[in-house]
Amino acid sequence: MHNTLTRVQNVFGFFTSVAFAVAAAIAMSVLLSPQTPSASLELRNVQVVKGRPHYYSTKREEYAHVKFDLDADLTSLFSWNTKQLFLYITASYPSSDPTIIPPSEAVIWDAIIPSDYAPLHPNTYIHPTSKTAPKPKKSAKGKGKKEVGKPYPAGASPGIVRLDNQKPKYQITDVSGKIAERENATLTLHWNVQPWVGALVWTNTKTVGRWQGLQGGEAKFAFPPLKGTEVKKDDLKTETGGERNRGSPA
Amino acid sequence: MFGSLASLQPRQLAAQVLNFALVLSTAFMLWKGLSVFADSSSPIVVVLSGSMEPAFQRGDLLFLWNRGQETQVGEVVVYNVRGKDIPIVHRVIQRFGGGSTPLQLLTKGDNNAADDTELYARGQSYLDRSQDVIGSVVGYVPFVGYVTILLSEYPWLKTAMLVFMALTVVLQRE
């Protein structure tokens, strides 16, 4: 009853039970932290062109390039149990048969905003700095420390996003190859809160307890007709994200 | 050491064996019960690659739920490539269909710049929600699953662990 093995077993068993209980408490405590998310999303420009949007595209198809403005305040989503916020904007449009088939949806832009306590990872969103902000002075040493951008504007905190005429990260294609002149399309802001431990949470538009639903974050638009050859290649450039694995997926 | 084993009555030995079998079958039935509850063939998976960093690291444990057939864009799904047995955990970035037609999904890892079109089987451009997807991630516990990765990458660890467990069982008889 009092040999070393029994003591080790008891200690280990107790450690496991306590760790499990603490993890469960942390996961459940998220419900107590209030959330007041708000965002304003506006379409800036949408163009539909015919071409090969992906490096693996074998045939020409119609694809849409959507630029948008975003002003979001999602700081209340960052609680003690938030590891990162995965923000994404989708464009959804009705299917060919809206009565029986739900709308099609595609992500045009996404951003990973880590909490300040998360360990540094290269795959992080770098918020574009405003052009009028003063440039940081170059370090006096020969090889200065590389200034890494923050995932939020200068002076703000994680969750504040202010984008103006933002290029998308992905072009929108439809499985049929045609996307021009589709009506009733919607641009929507979504998020996915990644916890340190517990349940993953997605966008809530309805208020649940202390969590208020998202106000705003939607913009309606329609895909324009196919543009001819007047579109400059520069206008169709997409934003590069922080993903480390470039090229073929692992 | 083995003398103590031989001195056990046959009834005690049988009781020990039955106990052991009961523990094994309880664990097995808990797993299968969870599979039925979540409607997934593998309701708990361990993250094997770094393609979803920084959200999921290698060794994280994920809890899956497979009862929501209308998978939305932004959900993280676990799927098997047709013909292969390796589960891949990636995020849905496009969806077409649904309702009465098969729901087609395109996925991409958070840490991959390219989407998963090259990972799918030859001639397959999209995942079929009902056929390829094992489940959608609803919960997450960090690091706990790293033991299984170690066991599969270093097979000698498995034998070492079994020998260690057998030794403790035998030595406890003293």
Total DSSP E strands of chain A? 11
pLDDT < 50 stretches of chain A: none
Question: Which value, in Å, is the CA radius of gyration of chain A?
Answer: 23 Å
Greatest chain-chain contact: A-B, 50 and 45 residues
Strand residue percentage of chain A: 25-35%
Q: Residue share in helices of chain B? A: 25-40%
Overall shape of chain A? elongated
Name the beta content range of chain B.
25-35%
Total of helices of chain B: 5
Return the average pLDDT of chain A rounded to an integer: 84
The run of helices and strands of chain A is: HEEEEEEEEEEE
Major sheet description of chain A: 5 strands, mixed
Pfam family, one (chain A): SPC22
Keywords (chain A): Endoplasmic reticulum, Membrane, Signal-anchor, Transmembrane, Transmembrane helix
GO cellular component, one term (chain A): signal peptidase complex
Organism (chain A): Oleoguttula mirabilis
Sum up the structure in keywords.
heterodimer, A: 250 residues, mainly beta, five-stranded mixed beta sheet, 11 strands, 32% strand, elongated, B: 174 residues, 7 strands, transmembrane helix (chain A)
